[in-house]
Design a protein that fits this description.
By secondary structure, the protein is mostly beta strands. The protein has a single domain, classed as Jelly Rolls (Sandwich). The protein is built from 1 helix and 8 strands. The strands form 2 sheets. A 4-stranded antiparallel sheet has the order 1-8-3-6, with no helix packed on it. The longest helix is centred in the N-terminal third of the chain and has 14 residues. The radius of gyration is 19 Å and the shape is globular. About 6% of the residues have low confidence.
Amino acid sequence: MGRLAALLLGAILLSGCGRPTGGEQFLPGPRNSYDFHLEVADTLALYDFSFFTRVDKNGSKALAPHEPLRLGIVWRDPSDSTYRETVWMRPEYVGGTVRKYRTGVQFPMAGEWVLSVSITPETEGLRGFGLIWDYYYGTR
């Protein structure tokens, strides 16, 4: 009986030992650019990305209650080509903010991709900026 229990426990523990399907990174601020390095191994995977931040509401350069942050986004692929866009993020002041950025992103080539985010206006009380990613195969 003890041997069966040990085998069952081992099977349960091994089933939980899989490759992670995502991650997150938070870079403390303030800084001119927040650079996130992503190693893409499988070009068949689809990725979802979210941004997160925390802004303390204080000081003369603090954001107005509903003023959005302008995010200058630059993606650099493994061959050093760049892709640019601008998105807006409205922060919450209590408990931080998580906002979806892109869903279902499929990278055209494997290797290290760099996502650089610059934030304007300069925001007093900005604690930093983070990226959350998850990948999966097929449709959700």
